[in-house]
Batch of 3 targets.
Target 1
Amino acid sequence: MSPGSGKKGGEKQEYVKHPFLLSVDDVVQHLHTDIEKGLSSARILELQKQYGQNKLEGEGGVKWYSVLMKQISNAMILVLVLAMSLSYGVTDYVEGGVITAVIVLNVLIGFYQEYQAEKKMDSLKSLSSPSATVLRDGEITTVPSVEVVPGDIVQIKTGDTIPADLRLFEEMNLESDEKILTGEAIPVAKDVDAGFSGKDELTTGVGDRVNVCYSSATVTKGRGRGIAIFTGMSTELGKIAKSMQGKQRKPNRSLSRKDGGTLQPAKGLSLRIWDGIGKFLGLTDGTPLQRKLSKLAYVLLLCALLLAIIVFGVNRFDVTNEVAIYAISTGIAIIPESLIAVLTITMVVGMTQMRKRKVVIRQLSALEALGGVTNICSDKTGTLTQGKMITRRVWIPGVGIYSVKNADDASNPTRGIVTLGPAPTSRLEAEKQEAEKADELDQKRSGAALKFNEPEEKRRRVQNRAAKEQDDNDSNDNEEKSETPEIVPELKAFLQSTSLCNLATVRKDAESQKWLTTGDPTEIALQVFAHRFDSGKKKLVESMGWRQLAEYPFDSTVKRMSVAFRVPEEERTLIFTKGAVERILDLCVTVGVGEHEKKMTEEMKQSVIEQMNMLAEQGLRVLAIARRDWPEEINERSETPRESVERDLTLLGLAGLYDPPRLETKDAVRECTTAGIRVHMLTGDHPSTARAIAKDVGIIPKDLGSLPADVAESLVKTAAEFDGMSDNEIDAMPELPLVIARCAPDTKTRMIAALHRRGRYAAMTGDGVNDAPSLKAADVGIAMGMGGSDVAKGASDIVLTDDNFASIVNAIEEGRRMFDNIQKFILHLLVSNVGEVILLIAGLGFQDSYGFSVFPLSPLQILWINMLTSSFPAFGLGRERAAPDIMNRPPHSNKKGVFTGQILADMMVYGVIMGACTLLTFVIIVYGANDGALGDDCNKGYNPSCEVVFRARASVFAELTWLILASAWEFKSLRRSLFNLGIDHTTPANPSGSGSGNGNGSSNQTGGEKPSASDPELESQSLSEGSTWQRLRPNPNGRFHLFADLYENKFLFWAVVIAFLSVFPAVYIPGLNTSVFKHTGITWEWALSFGAIFVFLAAVEAWKALKRRFGWFAPRGFQDDLDRAVEEDRLDQGSVCVKGFLR
C-alpha cells in the first residue's frame, strides 16, 4: 500500500502501489475518473468532502493574537495607557475609569475591524492564487488550484504552476522545473511511456519518476495532460511542507561566528532584538505608509512628553495632582487616537472596491504606489486590444489576396464571407487601387457626386468607414449568392500548414449550437480560417489520415513553431512551420508551390517584405506560413535539432491577423494623457503593426511630422534597436520610446531601468514566465488574471481579472482617490489636534487663586472629541468619491507621501484658526462677561466658584466639536470652495465613493468649455494651476447644489449631523456634564459657539481662495508646446495623443 500523507480534515490518499508504477488504466480505474469527460460535478463534491481542499496546512490565515498585539502596541494606545496610569496615580478614578474604557473599546473595535479586514484581504489574495485548467463534465474549465481533487483531468502548458501531483497520460516535449523538490536546476523531461519494471518507490527517486509531474513545479516547456493523484498534504511538496513554511531571516541575523566572524553573534542578536522591537512598534513592519504613520505616532508621543514638560515648567515643576491632570490633557490632545484604525479600514475598503473594478491587490504597498504612477508599460495583445484575432487577409504567391469580410464572431467560421482579389505588385499599384476606391466611395457618399475638401487623414478615415459600411452592405446583399473561392493547390498547401501546425481547437457544440474554441488567439484565427474551407485539423487528422510525428513548440527566442506530419497514403514527411516573417524568410529557398513556385532571390524577398509591410500598415499582425519535405525518419524522441529541421523551407503565404482595440482603450489612453501618465506599448508584433495600433488608440500622434524630428524618431523603436543602445545612449534620447516592437523579455527590464534613471515611477504588465523579472523590477507589477501564467501572477503586485488596459486606469484612479482621501482624513484628525494643543498651551496662562492653570478643555472632553467626534467623519472622508479633476492632474510624488507641503501648511493654518476661535470664546466668557472668575480647583471637580469656568468649557467643547465637523465638510476638497465643489449629480452614486460613473470606471467629465469672463475665480484657477478645463466648471446649470454636494457622501453627512446633535445631551445630561466632562449647561453662550462656525468657514474659504488665486501648492502644469502642436491632430482624430513629452 502506498499512502499519501494525511491531511487535516481529509482522508489519506492511498494506492496499491505508487501511481508512477501503475498503468494509466489502473489509475483511472482506482480513481473512478474518465480521461475523455473528466469527473462529474456530483463526484467532485464527494471528493472535496472526502479529501478536503488542495492546500498545505498552515497556509495563509491571519493570527488573532498578532492583530491584538498590533492594536495594543501602537503609540496612540501607549499614550492613553500613560494617561490612565497618571489619572489613577492622582486618584481621579472617574477620569481613569473612562480612559480605561476608551482604551479597551478602542483596542476591541480596532482588533475586530482589522481582524476582519485581514481576513478579507486574505480572501482577496486567494483570488490571485494559482489556477488549474481541468476537464469536468466534458468541458474544459479553469478553477482555483485549491479546488483540484484526486481524479481531476488537468491540462498543463508552458508557464503553468502544476496544481497537484499528476500521473501523465499525454505529453508533447514536456519539461518541468522541479528544483523546489530535487534541488536540481535543470528541467526534467517527461515521458508518459517510461517503464519502471522491477523497480519500487524506495529505489526510484522523485526526480526519476518521469511519468509524474509534481505540485508547485513549473512547466518550462511543452504541454501535457495528467490525472491528479495526490493533492494537499499528500503531495510530495506536502511531505516537506513544514520545512518550506519557515520564514526567511533578514541578512546579518545569523548567530554563528562562521557567517560573520567573532562579533557576528552579538551583531546578529542586536539586530534580531531591533527587529522585534521595530515590529512591535510598527517601525519595521507593514507598508511604507503604515511605517510613516507609526513614526508620526511616536513623534507625536515625544511631542506629548515635551508638552507635559512645558506644563510642569510653567508650574515650576511643582507636580501636584492638578498639574498632572493638565499634563494629561495636553498629551491626549496631540494624539489622533483613531488614525491607525481609520487608515486600515480605508485601505481594506479600497481593496474591496479595486476587486469590483476588476483589480486584485496582492500587495498593500501597491495601493499606495498606484496613485504615483507616471508611466505604464503595457503589452498590446489582449490588454490594449480584445485578444480575439481574426484572419483578415491572406496573401498566396501567384494567386492573390483572400479577404474575410463582415466576420463579427472570431470563433465562428460560418460568419462573414471570403473574397479573392488580385495582390498589388508594388506600393504604387496599391496606392492607385486605394485612390480608385476612394473616388468610388466619394461618389457613393454624395448624391451630387461632390468632392470634399478635407484634411487627408480625415478623408482617409471617412473612406475607411464608408468602405466598411459598403463591405457590410455588399455582404448582406450578396451573402446568399456569394460562394467561398475554390481551393486551388496553392491555397490547399497553405491551409494544410495553418491547420496542422496549430494547437487550437474549433468545434461546434451540439447542444448549444455555438462554436467553441480553445488555444492561443493567433492559432484560433488561423484554425478558423482553415475551417472556412472545411480544412480543419480534426478533419485532416481523423478523416484524411494525417499523423503527427513530432513537434517543435513555439520558442520566443526564434519566434516560430514547427510540426512534422506523415502525408496520408504516401511514404513522405512534411515539415510545417509558422512564425514571424523575418525569422521565416531567411530560412526559405523557394516561394509558392506548383506552377507558381519561384526561387527566393533577393528581389523576391523584397517583394514579400513589401507585401508584409502593406498588410502591417493596415494594423494586421503578419505571420509567414511555410513547409518542406523531410527525407529522414523523425518522431517525438528524435534528437534532430530544430535548426536542421527549420531550413530550406518553401514560403506558402502570409496571413494578416487583426486584433481590434478594445472599445474602451481609447478613452483609457485619453485619461492617462490628461492625468500626466505616459503609455508605452511593448509588443512582440511587427513595427508597422505596432505603429498602426498605437496610432489607433492614441498612444502616438497620427501625424508624427508635427513633432520635432528627434522626438518623432525616438517614439517608435524595435527591440533590436533599443537593446543595441548603451545606457548612456538611451539616457541621451529626447524621449524614451512609446512603442517598442518585437519586444523581448530583457527589453522590458531595460525599459524599466531607463525610466527609473529618469526618476519615473513605472507600472509594467506581463503574462508570461519570462515577464517575472520585469514585473519585479517595476514599481507596480501588473499580471494578467485570465491569460497570465501563475509565475507572472506570483511576481506581480496586482492582478487584472479581465486583462483589460482600462482596468489599469481604473486602478490608478482608485489609487489616487485613496491617496487623496487619506490626506483628507489625516488633515481632519491633525487639525483638531493642533487646535486643541494651541488652546491648552494658551490656557496655561489662565491660573486660579491657587496658582494652578485652568484647562479650557478637560481630558475627557478631548477624548470624546478625538475618539467619537473626529473618528466617524474621518471614516466618511475615507469614502469620498474621486475629485472631479483627479485624472486631470499630474501624479503625486511617492517620495513625499501624504505629508505634502499643502497638507502641512493647511494643518497649521486651520489648526491656528480653530485654536484661536475656541480660545477667543473662552476669553470672552471668562474675562469679557465675568471679569476673569476662574474659580478654585476647577480642574478637579465642580464647586460653586467654578460655574463660569464650567460654562466656558461647555461653550468651547460645543464650538470645537462643530468646527471639527465643519472642517470635515470643508476637506471634501482641499482647494475648491465648499459652496462650489462641482460634483456631477447626474452620475449615479457609487457605493465605493469613487468618481466612476461610466462603464469602465473612468471619471465622468463634462464638456471642456473655456471659462468665461463671468467665472474669474475658475479662470484664475485654470491659469494658475495649469489644469485642463474638464469638469472644472461646477454646477453648469447655475443651480445651488450645496445640500446635494454634502448629502452625496451619506456616511459623512450623517456622521456630521449625528455628532452635531450629540453635543446637546453631552452638555445638559446631569452628572455626565459636571462629573465626567467637567462642564455645565449653558444659555446665551450658544451664540458664541454658533457664530464661531461662520467665522471658521469664512477663514477657511479665504485661505482656499488665496491658494487658488496665487497658485500656492497647485499641481505642476504638464501641458507644453508639444501638446499644443498635436492639439489639432488630437481633436480631428477624436482620440488623445500622448502628452507631456518634454516636461
Note: The longest helix spans residues 805-842.
Target 2
Amino acid sequence: MGLHRRGGTKMGLGLVVICVCALYVTSAFEIPLEVEQLPTITDQSPSSLIAFPFDESFSVTCEAKGNPAPEFRWTKNGQEFDPFQDPRLVKEENSGTFVIPNNGNLTEYQGTYRCYASNKLGTAISSEIEFIVPYVPKFPKETIEPLKVDEGQAFVLKCDPPKGIPPLQIYWMTINLQRIEQDERVSMGLNGDLYFAHAEEKDSRRDYCCFASFPRIRTIVQKTAMSVNVQTNKAKSGLFPDAANAIRERRPSLLTPPGVKSEIVQVKGEDLNLECIAEGFPTPQVEWFKIGHELPEKASVENHGKLLVVSRAEQEDSGKYMCKAKNALGEAVHYFTVIVEEPPEWVFEPQSQLSMVGSDVILKCSASGTPQPIVTWRVNGELIGASPLPNRRVISDTIVLHNAKESDSAVYQCEASNKHGSLLVNANIMIMNLPPMILTNEGEDYSAVEGKGLLMHCNVFSSPPSTITWSRDDSFESVQGPRFYIHDNGSLEIYETDKDDAGQYTCLAKNIEGSSAIEARLSVKDPTRIVVGPEEQEILIGTSAQLSCLPKYDESFSDDFELLWEKDDMEIGLNYTENPRYLVEEGVLHIINVSHKDQGLYRCVARTPLDQETASAWLTVLDVPDAPESLVLSEHKGRSVKLKWIPGDEHNRTTTEFIIQFEESQWEPGKWKELLRVPGNLHSTLLKLHGHVDYRFRVAGVNAVGRGAYSEPTERYKTPSAAPDKNPETIKIEGHLPHEMDINWEPLLPIEHNGPGLEYKVSYRRQDIEEDWHEHTVKRHSFVVKNTPTFVPYEIKIQAKNNQGWGPEPKIVTGYSGEDFPSAAPDDVGVEVMNGSLVKVSWAPVHKDKLHGHLGGYRINWWRLRSLVDSKKQHGEKHTVTVPGEHTHATVPGSSPSPIPEQNPIFRVTDVQRHSVSLAWAPPLEPNGILTGYLLEYQLINDTEEAGPLQTIDISNPDTTKWLLRDLEAVSKYKFYLRSCTTMGCGPIVSEECTTTLEASKSASPSPSSTTKSPATKPTRSIIGLASIHGGISTQGWFIGLMCAIALLTLIVLVACFVNRNRGGKYSVKEKEDLHPDVESQGMNDDTFCEYSDNDEKPLKGSQRSMCGDMKAGDSGDSLVDYGDEEAQFNEDGSFIGEYTGRKEKRASAEVKSTAQSPA
C-alpha cells in the first residue's frame, strides 16, 4: 500500500518518462496467469506417432495453459473422440494427454487426432496427430521358376519388396549370407532389382536372395531364393566350332528407366536420385549432364556411375538432366525433367496480440510453397465463416477488427497446406484495459561487483503499456547518465557500477488506468582479483610442480568464496582418494610425480556468487625422447647397410642426436656397444660394418633432458669375411736389456679381425744404416729383437693379415733398441739458499753421448750436516727427489723445522724508574731464517686485573737486544711482550711484568754473568723483590729500608765472590760451576720489582710476588765456557758482547746484558 502511495506522489511531480513500451498493440507478449487469458497450447505430440511393436505404450500429448484453466476435447478422423469413455486408455487429470497401452490390439486406435483446449474466452487447437499402427512386412509365398539365359544376354532379378515404415534397405545375398558382388556389370537399382548388363558363366547359381530391412521396426524379411542358369557357347561348339568362347557384341540400351525421357517431382530438402542402368557388351559406361548448366557442386556419382545424387535439393536444382550410356558400338541416352516442389513455409506468421479497447487489430497470415498452399482461417476452432462479426472483415490473407471490444477476444487459427504438408498456428487476440501489474517481487536485494554491470528487474504487465521510471534514495528524479539504461521490459541496467551506486531504488509503472511501484536495494562489492597467478613452467617428469594462485575478494563472501583449479577446461577433482597426486595448500596446487598427461593449460578460478577471476599458465612436461620405432635395414651391400627408424615423441625438447648401438653374437653376445651417433634431424644412416660379424642394432634418442630408451633391436645381419681394414695402433718399443728391443702393440679387437686366421707381420730395420727389412709373422701382439746394438734407432711396421688377405700398408714408426746406464754424472752442481725453508740446486746436463738411452731425469740427494749454532758436524737423515725431463735446476726443502723463529730464551727488566723501564733480551736460539727485527708490546695493568690499551713498538734492527721505554706512569704496573720476527712472520711471545717506582732511583749494580739452561728445559720464572707498593705493609718506610739492606748485603757477597774468582788462578771445574750458576738463579737489581715469564701471551692477573731476597740456584751444570768456541767478552759496564757460537747436545748458553757498576 505504501508503495502505491509513494508512486502516486511521484506521478504528481511529473517524473521524466524513460521507457514507453507500446502505445496500442503489444505482440509476442507473455500474460501472467493471474490475468484472465485465452488458452495456449504448450505441448503436443509430433505429427506422426508410430506404434512400434516393442514399445510398452504410446502417449498422445496435449497440454495447454489459460485463465480459467482450459478444458480438453479430441477428434479422431474429424469425429468427436472422448478418451474418458474408453477404459483401456490411461488419462491424466487437468491434462488433455492420454496413453494407449500396447496390449496387442492397436489397429482400432489408428487414425488422425486433433486436440481442442477451451475456456470461456476461446479455444486453441493442436496440429493433426496421425497414429500409425504398422503391420509386419512380408514377401508373398511364391514359387519362382529358374531363369535360363544365354551367355552375353542381359537379365534382371526382381525383388519387389513389401511396403513398410521407411527407411527401407535392400541387400542381395546368397543363402549363406554372402553378399552378391556388384560392379559396373552387375548392380542393384533404387527399386531393389538386380541388373546384369550381360550374363557370364559365373552368374550361374541357385541362391540369389533379396533381403528387405526395416530398421525402425527392427525387421528383416527374405524373398524366396532365385536360380539362374547361364548357358555358355561351349555347349554349341560341336555345331558351331567358331562360336565357342565368343560373346556377340552389341550397343547399349537402358534397362531402367524405360523410354527416352521422364519427369521427376522432388520435394525440397530431400535428396534427388537419378538412375540409369544400361545393358550391352562390352559393359557400357554411364555419364551424367545437366543441360545448359554444369552439374551442381553438391552432386555425386555413385553405384559405379549409374546413380546421380544431388543432396538436399533446392529450387535451383530444377531443370533437365541427361544420362548417356556408351560402349565401342554406340550409346543410349535418357532425359530427366526435374521439378522441385516444397511444403508450406510461413511468409508472415500471425502473432498473438494484446490491444486496448477501441483499437483496430490487424492479423495477417501468408505462406509459400509449391504448389501454392491454401490458407484456412478459424476462430476458436471453428471456420471463420461460421461465426461472423459486424466489425470483422477478411481481406485475402488478412483479418481486420475495427473498434475492438473485450468480447472480441478469441483464438484465431491460420492453417496453410498443400500436397506436401501443412502448417497451423494459434494467435491469441486479447482486448482489454488493465492498470500496471508489477510481477517482480517487492524488496529484492541486488548485489553488484564494482566495475561490472547489473540488471535490476521491474517486470510490468498492463494495457495499455506503462511508462516505467527508476529513482533512488527518496529522490523524486529519475536516475540519469550514460551508465543507466531502462529496457523495454522495465529492467534498469547499470554499466560499470561503483561504490556510490549502492542504495535503495524505486521502480514506478504508470498508464491511463493507474500506477504501481516496488523498491529494491543495491549493494556494491569489491571485485575478485588474483594477486599472484600461476606462471608458465617447464617441469621434469617424475618431479613435483607447484602452481600458485593468491586471490583477493570481498570480505562478505568469506563463506561463499571458492578457489578451483581446471586443466584443459576440465575441473580438477581434489579428492585425495580419487586423485592423490593433486594437493592444494594455501592456494598452491601441488602436482606430485608429474607425468606426461599432466601437461596442459592450468587455470586458477577464484569464484564468488557474483563474479569470478581466472589466471592461466601452461605446464610443459620435459622428458627424454621415447624409443624410436619401426627399425628397418635396407640397401644391404656386404659390409654396409642402411638403417631407418621412426623417432619417438621428443617430449618438448628437440632430439639433438641418435645413438646407434650394435650387438654381435660371436665374441661378446648380449653386450651392446656404441657404433656411431647421428644428428637428431636424421632418421636414417648408412652403417659401415666389420666383416664376418653377425650384427643387430638398436637406436636411442638424446635431448637436453638426457638419453631415452633404446628401441627394439633389428633382425640380425651377418657381413661377409674380408681382409683387415686396419693395422695395429699404439706400437710401443722398449729396451729392457741393453742388447734387446721389445716391440709391443695393441692387438686388433676381435670384431676388427674381419674374418678367421688373424696374424701380424713384424718388419724392422736399422734407421742409421742401409739394410733390408727383417720380417717375422706372429699371432701374439709382441715380438723381441735380440742382439741389437745399445740404443740405436730402428724403423718398425706391423701389418695385419687373415685368411682373406693382408690389411692396408702399415705406417712406419721409429724406436730405439735397449738402453744402458749413463756413464757420467752432472757437472757444475750449485746450491743457492732461497729462504729458510727452500734451497735451489742447479747443475750442467749430461752429454747425450754419455746417456746411453732416453733421458728420464735427474735425482737429487741431500741431508743435514749441522746447525749453524752448533759447530759440530752431524749427518742427518738423507732425502731424495727426482726431477723428470731435461731440467737443470730444482728447489728442495731446507732444514728449518718451522718457518718462524723460536721463542726468545731471555727477556728481562734491567732498570725501573718513575717514568721509564729498561728491557734486555737474547736472540732466539733457532731463528729459522734471517731475523728482520722484534715486535715489542706493553700495556698498563692494575689490581682489578683489567688491562689498558696495548702499545706496539716495531724494532726493525735485528742486532738490537735492549730497549728503554719512556713516558710511563709512576707507581703503575706494566706487562711487556716480546717476539722475534723473520720474513715468514713473528715467533711465540715471551712476557715480563714490573711496577714503576714512586721516585727516581740510582742505577742498580750489575749482576754477575750467568748461563741459561739448555733450550730443551723450560726456563724457570725468577721473582725477586718486594710486594706491590700499591697497598698494605709494602708502603711502610721501615719495611722498605729493611728490604734494601738485605739486598745490599746480597750484592756485597756476590761482588766478593767475583773478586775472589779474578784472584784465584787455577781452580777446579766444580769451582767454575759454583762461580757460574744459571742465569735463572741469579738475583736481579735490588731496586727492580719485576718478574720473568717465558711464554705468557696474556697480561698477568694478580701474580703472587716472593718476599725473599733471592731464589735458589738451578740444578743446571752447564757452563758458557763449555759451549763456546771463542771467549765471551763483556763491555766495561758488564754487558754481553759475544755471540752464540755452538751447541752441546742441542743445548745453548747465553749471556745477559746487565750493568757492571759496583757499589761504592
Note: DSSP finds four helices and 88 strands in the chain.
Target 3
Amino acid sequence: MNCSLWNRNKEKEQIQRKMDDNFGGSLTPPVSPNVIEMMETDMECCRLPCFSCVLGQRDGGKSFSADGYLASGSLNRLLLRLDPSPTGYEADTVDIFGFRWVTEMALVESPKLLFGLFRQQISRLEGLAQATSCDFGHANSVYVEADEIRQQCINFLQYIKVFIFRYLESSRGLNEEPAHPYEELEAQLPSVLVEELHALTLFIGQLREHSSNILANFSIQNQGKVIYAHQFMDLTGENLTNVSLFEDHCFNLLRDLIVLAVNKYTKVRPSEVLTTCHYQCSCIKELWVLLIHLLDHRNKASQTENFWSCCNNHFRNLLQEAAGVEGVRLCDATHCKDPQGFIWWLVTHLTMLYVFDRNGITQEKKQIGSNWSFMEELLKRSSNNQTGVLEEHLRMHVQCCLTLCDLWDTNSNAVSILWEYYSKNLNSAFNIPWLGLKGLASVSKSPLSMLEITKTCCCGDQSPNLYQSQNSFQFFLRILALQITKGKATNGTHPWKQLKGRIYSKFHQRKMQELTELGLQNFFSLFLVLAAVTGIEDVVSRVSELLDLLKPSQLSIAQQSLIWKGYFAFLLMYEEKNVDISVLATKLSNNFQNVTKEFYLKTTDHTRKVTLWPLLSTYIEAVQEVFETSSCLHLSEEKLLNEGFSLLYRACRESELNTALMFLQVVLARLRSVHKRSIQLLQQPRVSSHSIPVPLVAKERHLAIATALWRNFFPFVKSQRLSQTPSSQVADIAAGFTLLAMDMPNTAPSDLQPQPLISMLQLFGWDDMVHPQLVCRYLSHLIENSALVDALTSLGCSSYQTSSVHSWFRCVLQQHMNQTVGVTEKLDSTHTTGRVNKEQLAGLTRIVYKLPEVESLLLQAQLDQSAVKVEPKTAVFIFIKAVGKTYTQLQTLGDKSALVSKALDYVGDILKYTKPYLANKGLPDGLQLMYWTVGCIVKHWALILATSKAQQLLFRIIDCLLLPHTLFQQDKGLPPAMLSAIRDNLSLYLQGLSAIIGQTTVQTTYVKQQLRNIIQQYFGRFLPSSPTGSGIVNHPILLALCESIPNTQHQTLRNMVLLVLNENYMQFRGHAPPPRLAAVLSFLHELLRRNQTSDATSETKLLLPTVLKCSMFVNEQQVKQLTLEIMQCIIENCQSSNPSQVCPHLTSVLRHFIQEYIGIYDHQVYNLMELIAGLNRDLVIGLIPTLSQMLKDTEHKRGLGRNNSQRESYRRLLILLGEEGQAEIIKLEKECDDA
C-alpha cells in the first residue's frame, strides 16, 4: 500500500474514534421518532437533486438526468443566490437519518452529531459497495438499502444548504456585547462547518484512490465536496482561510478527475480521439460541467483563476513530470505515457462541455471561453522538429486543434506555429504506416479532385473518421481556412493580412526548386485553400510568380503534369467564382502547344513521345473537366482549344487517339447543351434587362468555342472519314460537328458553306467512299433528330430520306467488307477489324423503316412493317419487294419514271461499292449477301430494270456479276466463293431476266442473248457428273423454273433453257454421245415431271428428236430409262390438251424421225417404236403407214428384194399394235405373195 493510501486510512480511523466518543455508545437524539407523528411536507414530496447515470423517459433525450444538479436547476439557483429548495424544509421539524430534528436549530445545536451520523451512513454505503454476491435476490436488497442510505445523505446535504441560506446570520462585530448561548453557537457554526467538511473530505479520501466497484456507487460522497464548494464560496468568500481551503479542494478534485481521464486515455486509439470521451459515466461528465460553471463564475465574481487556469496548472505538472522535472506529481499510481496527446484530447472534450448552460441544456451559438494561451505552448511542443514529430501523434494533435479552432475564437498564432512546422516539411508524405493504404499520401489524379480536396478543407463539417482519410497537413489547411473565414465573420478584420506575409515569405527560388512531386501537391493544396477563402486573383498571381522560378527543363514530367493540374484547379475555381480565365488559360495553352510541337516532330524519339504523353493527357483531361464543370462556357474557355490540338491528333497512336477523341466528343456535346440552354434563355419572353447581356455574352463565347473546334479539330476528323478502320468515336464526333453546323452554321469553315449541315451529311453520311461502320453509327445519331429534320426541310433538302435509305442499303451490303477470308459470322464482331456492329446496323434499320418515305412504300405495297424487328437482310428484302410492287401499281408514266429514278438512287452504284467483294475473291459471306441482294433487285425490279433509265445498271449487273471476263478464261475461272454465291442465287437472276425479256424494249434482244449465255455457262458448271444425289434437283436453273412465277415469264425462261440444253448439251458429235448425258437427261426429266408447259408443240419439236436419238444410239441402261421417262412426259404433255386424239405434232415428229433414220438404223428404229408403243400404242398405230412405206422404200432402194431381217423386226412391232398391227402384217404378206 502506498503512503498516500496509508495516511488516508489512518485519518479515517481517528475520525471514526472521535465520532464514537461523541455518541457515547448510544444515540439519544433531541427528539425521539417514536413520540412525534409523521408529517408530510412539500420537501418529502419532491425528489432531491443527485448524480444519476441512468437517463429515463422523463429526461426528454437530454444529456443529463432530470435528477441531476444541472437539469434540476440546483446549480443555477446556487449561482443566482436563490433558495436551494424553495418548497422544501418548510415544516418545523425535519427528518434526518431517521430522526426528527428542529428545522431552524438542528445544525447549530448538533453539527458534530449530524456529521457523525453522516459519516456512519457513508461507512455503511462503502461496506455495501464492497459486498459481492451472485444471488440476485440479495443483490436487489443491497441495492434498495444502498439507495435508501443515499437518499438520507442527500437529504442531509440539502438541509445544510437550505439552513445556511435561510437561517445562518453574519457574525457580529468585535465590539458587540456577549450574546445568547445559541447565538454563540451560531457564530461558531461556520468554523464548525469548515472543520467538519474538511474532516469529511479526509474521511472520504481522494476520488482516484477508490477501487472501481466503489467508484461506481460512490458518486454520492462527491456531493459533499461539491456542496461544500458551492455554499462556502458564497457565504465565506472573504475568509482567506476558507478561500484557501476551497482552492485546495478544487485543485484536488480536478486532479482526481484528470487522473480518471488519464486512465481512460490509455484505451483511446489516435483514430478515436474525437469519439471517445474522457468521462466514465454521465455523473463524471456532470461533475466536470459543474466545475466549469463554478470556477468560471467565481472568476468573474472574485477575479480568481477560471476553469482553464486551474486545469493548466495540472497540465503543466503533467508535462514536467513527463520531462523528468521535479515537482508536484499528478498521481503516484498513475503515469501518462503521452501527456501531449492526453492534454489535446482532454482539452478538446472539455471544450465540448462548454456548450452546456447552467441547466444542462445545449446552446449551439454559445461563446466558449478559450485556452489559447496554454494551447499555443502545447502546439509548439507538438510541432517541435527537434524532438522528432510522428505523423500519428501530430495528426491527432492537429485534429484536436481543428476542433478547438471551430469552438473557440480566432487565433492566428496557432496558424503561424503550425505553418512554421509545415513550411519546413512540405515534401513529407505525412503517412501513418499502420493505417495501410488509407494513410498513404498520393498525388491527386485530376484538377477536379484537387479542388474537391480544397472544398473539404474549407467546409465546416468535421467527421470523426477524418483521422484515417486526411493527413495532418490537410488538417492544418482546414485550420487555416477556418481561422480566415471565421475571423472575417466575427471580428470584421481579415486575418489573411496577418498571415499573408508569414506564408509568402517561406517561398523563394531555392525553396521552390527543392519541392518534390509531393511537395508541389502540398504547395497547390495550400494556395488553393488560400484562393478559396481569400482573393483568388492575388493568390493565383503569386502562385504564377513562384512557379515561374522553376525551369521546365529541370522538372520531371510528373512534376510538370502536377503543375498543370494545379493551374487547372485554379481554373475550375475561376469557373465557380464566375471569373474570366483568359489570362491563365492562355498561359496554359501556350505551354501545351509547345509540348505538342515536340510531340509532333518526326525527329522526336519514340521513347520521348511516350514520356510526353502523360503530360499531354493531363491537359486533355483537365480541359474536359473545365468544360464539364462550367455552367455557361462564357469565361473564355476557347483559349484552351488552340492549334496544339491539330498537331496532337496527327501524332497520336491508336490508344492515345481514343483518349483525345473522347475528349473532343465531350466538348462538342457540352458546347451544344450549354448553347441550347442559353438560346432558350434569350427566347424567354420575360427577362429582366440586367440579365439579358449574360446570355448574349455567352452566345458570343460559344461562337468562339465553335470556331476553335472547327479550326483546330475538324480537319483531323475529316481526314479520318475515308479510313478503312474507322473508330466509332470518329462517327460520334462527326455527328457532333453536324449538329454543331445545324446550331451555329456561321462558325463552319468556308469549304462547308453555304449549307454546312448538308455538306456534313454528304461528307460522312451519303458518300459511298466512307466506311459503312462509320456511316451506320453516324446516321443512327442523326436521322431521328427532329431538329435536324426540320433544319434540312427548311434548307429545301427534300432528298435527305432517299440519301439516308441509300446509305443504309449500302451499309447492309458492305457489312462484311473487312471480313477475313475463312472467318464466318459465327465469330464475335469484336474479332473482326472494322466490321460493322450488328446491333448498330439493326438500330439503323429500325430508324430507316420509320422514315415517312419508307413507311409510304410499305403501305402502298401492303407489306407488313414487322421487318423492323428482324435482321437487316430481311429488312432489305422487304424494302426491295415493296419498291417493285409499288411500281407495278403505278398508273401514270410520270409516277413510274419518278419511282425508277428514286429506286436507282436507293441502290446507287451498287457494283462500285460492292466491288471489294469481287476483288478479294474469297469473302463468302459478303459475296453471298451481294449476289442475293442484287438477285432480289433483278427479280423484283424487273420492270424497273427494263426501262431505259435502268439499262446501264442492268447491263453492268449482267457483265460484272453473271458473265465476268474471268468466266471465259479457261485458265483462270471463277473463284469457288463467287461460284458458290452464283449457284445459290442464280434462280433470282434468271427469273428477273426472263421477266425483262417479256418487255418490249430496245435492249430485249441483247438481254435475251445474255440470258442464253448465262444459262449455257452455268448449266454445265452446276451439273453433276452423274444423275445421282441432290445435284440435279437443287440445280439453280431447275429451281428457277420450278418456283412460282408468272406463266409468261416461266415459259420464256423454260423455252430458253430447253433451247440451250438441246443445242449445247444433247447434240452428238458424229456417233459419240454428249458428255454427262445421263445428268442432262435427268435434269430434263425433272423439269418435265415437275410442271407442264404451255407450249407443248414447240417443246416436242425441240426435244423429242434429240431424246429419240439418245435412246436409239446410247446403250447405257440409265440413259435408256431416262429417255423413256422423258418421252413419256413429252407424250403426256402433248396429249394433255386433247387426250382422246393423237397429237398430230407428235406424229409429225416421229414420222420425220422414222424417215430420217430407218434406212440405216431400221432395227433400232423398230425397237424405239416398240418402247413408244408401250407408252402410247395409238401414236405408233398412226405411224404404221409410214413404217410400212419406209420398209418398202428401203427394200426397193437396196434392190435385193425382201429384207427378211427388217421385216421380222417390223413384224414384232406390229404384233404389239393389236388388230391394226395384225391387219398390217396380213397386208404385207399378201403383197409379198402377189409379188
Note: The radius of gyration is 57 Å.
